[in-house]
Recover the amino acids of this structure.
């Protein structure tokens, strides 16, 4: 079993504070004979309609030797999971969870911003110290 990301528990706490229910830790399913494990599955009720909003979250810390290498890995993983969810659980929106320092750093560089837009990456920005969600970007 793959190790949880360093900030996995912080993201869980932040989601709970924001009114989400963690439904899967990890979110596991099979597509074309391949076992897929995304860090988290969560849902919450939407307003008076009593509809549920469902999300999947891949948590990343970007604490490796190279943030650029971490970005390459995260984009590849996100793309693969995006396609898997599209096939098996299209009702879920996939988010890449990153610390606010990463979002305000490498994610603001022009080429990175263009890649995130081109590959339609939805982002959950979390604050490590406050253990809260700083912002959602679709």
């Amino acid at each position: 079993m793959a190790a949880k990301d360093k900030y996995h528990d912080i993201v869980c706490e932040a989601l709970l504070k924001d009114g989400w229910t963690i439904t899967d830790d990890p979110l596991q399913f099979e597509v074309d004979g391949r076992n897929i494990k995304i860090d988290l599955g969560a849902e919450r009720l939407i307003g008076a309609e009593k509809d549920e909003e469902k999300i999947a979250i891949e948590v990343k810390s970007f604490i490796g030797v190279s943030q650029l290498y971490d970005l390459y890995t995260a984009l590849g993983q996100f793309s693969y999971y995006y396609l898997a969810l599209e096939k098996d659980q299209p009702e879920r929106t996939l988010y890449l969870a990153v610390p606010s320092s990463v979002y305000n750093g490498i994610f603001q560089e022009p080429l990175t911003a263009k890649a995130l837009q081109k590959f339609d990456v939805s982002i959950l920005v979390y604050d490590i110290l406050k253990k809260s969600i700083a912002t959602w970007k679709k």
About this structure: The chain has one domain: 8-51+70-137.
